[in-house]
Amino acid sequence: MKVKVGVNGYGTIGKRIADAVSLQEDMEIVGVTKTKPDFEAKNAVKKGYKLYAAIPDRVEVFEKAGLPVEGTIDDLLEKVDVIADCSPGKIGAENKPRYEKANVKAIFQGGEKAGTVEVSFSTLSNYDAARGKNYVRVVSCNTTGLTRLLYTIKEDFGIKKVRATMIRRVVDPKEDKKGLVNGIMPHPVSVPSHHGPDVQTVLDVNITTTAFKVPTTLMHLHALNIVPEKNVTADDVKGSLDKEPRIMLVSADDGFTSTAKVIEYARELRLRYDLYENVVWEDSIGMDDGEIYVTQAIHQESIVIPENIDVVRAMFDLASKEESMKITNRTLGIG
Ligand code: NAD
Known about the structure:
The protein is an alpha/beta fold.
């Protein structure tokens, strides 16, 4: 059986999910939606994706622009088993009644509130919680990055307490309407940031986070202090992280001196310089007074894509966590 997948909102996340689904033997892309007939809509058609209007009364706008659509989101919903809602944050919750009415399962993204869905999802920590579910949220880029690393450490050594600081890219590279040109913005100013509680929707861990936005578009950076339950050495931690394919260890000695260099490496590696892995500086892993210190970079535009593939297999009970991760990793070239 091939699961029929639709993408509602062919933007940064939506286009990557469509491409990743196309690489899976047990899934197929039935169609994608756009709100307007811009270059991204034209690219979708060029790539062979069937195009639908995300806003039903805009069909004419597409026709006038010479880019006919196959129908509206409601027509697409009649043809799919699951819809990946990749609309801007909070819009997914507004779209949900449409999916319920069409009796179609839906995957939401990190911009939606946890309360919108039955369960929040991050493959490593709670794959089984999404099995058979109808409405699931893949947690955000920062939360996915934190959860993968913390799950791996927790499994091997236990965790008493985590403190983490998020240095966040202010916007994605394509953004031309807003940004932060010359400043560092505590975001939020008050402590803690929402990231800790968001991690707790998928992983049982004692965590407090703070967050700052900086004028860069490439990646987020996380600085973590973790108090493990067991006595560990820096080499134990390196070994633990090194065995997880969704975590990539890099070294400043090898030229990875900043997120700019990490992205330069990724430009040679993957389409759109997508990095599905947490990028952890192995030189940053150290111990002080029983605490683990570690720094990682997260490519916000692509980190959640493997999880969006795994969640389909969980919701349709197609594979175990290990089987799904193996297929997703192989098809996306991870590890
Ligand atoms: P985006 O702005 O790049 O894309 C959103 C797309 O949805 C656009 O094509 C837009 O035209 C379309 N859209 C607008 N209104 C719509 C509607 N009513 N119905 C359907 N589609 C509509 O946004 P994005 O960065 O891809 O973010 C999508 C979701 O993924 C958000 O929840 C976001 O928080 C989450 N997310 C984003 C990132 C990131 O860094 N970009 C990372 C992880 C998760």
